[in-house]
Amino acid sequence: MNKSIVFLINKSEITAGTRGSSLGPDAIMTAARKKGSFIFGENAVEKLRSVNDLLDKPTPYRFAKRIDGLNKVYDILNDKVSAILNTNSFPIILAADHGSAGGTIAGIKSAFPDKRLGVVWIDAHADIHTPFTTPSGNMHGMPLATALNIDNTECKVNEVDEETLAFWNKLKQTGSPEAKVRPEDLVYIAVRDTEEQEDAVMNRLGIKNYEVADVRNRGVAAVMAEIDQQLKACDLIYVSFDVDSMDPELTSHGTGTPVENGLTPEEAKAILLHLAKNEKTVCMEIVEVNPCLDEKVNVMAEVTLDIIEEITQQLKS
Hints:
Elements: E1 4-10, H1 24-35, H2 39-42, E2 44-47, H3 67-85, E3 89-95, H4 101-111, E4 117-122, H5 143-148, H6 162-173, E5 186-189, H7 196-205, E6 208-210, H8 212-218, H9 220-230, E7 236-242, H10 265-277, E8 281-287, H11 299-316
Parallel strand pairs: 1-2, 1-3, 3-8, 4-5, 4-7, 5-6, 7-8
Helix pairs in contact: 1-11, 3-4, 3-6, 8-9, 10-11
GO molecular function: arginase activity; manganese ion binding
Pathway: Nitrogen metabolism; urea cycle; L-ornithine and urea from L-arginine: step 1/1
EC number: 3.5.3.1
């Protein structure tokens, strides 16, 4: 494949409920230096401007916390990701929290407006809430709703003010005024912690979730063959990997919202390597490493580095 790789560092952590994921990319780079890995010296590294100063001020947006700042992050990612893709390079994004992933998807669509995009979302959480359904207001639970251009008002529990709604509609329109992903082109792996509003919209839209038990009992190869078949009509694939998809007992609790009974690191690596081999895959994103919560002293970053090294080797082979 011999891809020209660009590591894109996004430290904005304004969409999560816990602090510290902004240190995740540096924790991974520290793990590389400790190991003697030169992966970040041998490939291009670009850093995005952070908007974390917003964490030092209250937010007036109860059901979409710091959505004003997230609009800026989406715009930054839309511009940068599309620019990288337009140079025929492969962006591997190391992001703080998962809320910015909708901006990544927007950037892919901006670079390839006429291409059909498939998304493989590897995560403990569905991240398909909207301001109308969120129980927390934390926007790392909403990026896929922006990509799908949905509100899920069928499950509405919150009354959303006009200013929040204007920001929300702008997020959905970043990169394209239409939906950037079709429901049938979205596949979940390892999702196991959802709210009823998410379950309802997933069922209504027919979004497939391969549970950990599916991966464990059927094997990675069988599951990935089925995903390949589902996404065969797609021109491009984006892969989003939240480290909380892995079992915290086998890694660490060094992530914002760990959930038990996740993937093994070996299963996660096998899934990601399969996707890295696919010529349709144009971008991969790794999120939610939080060294402030790591009871094993940066083990989550070390596990993640091992996966990133093998992905990079695969892409450059």
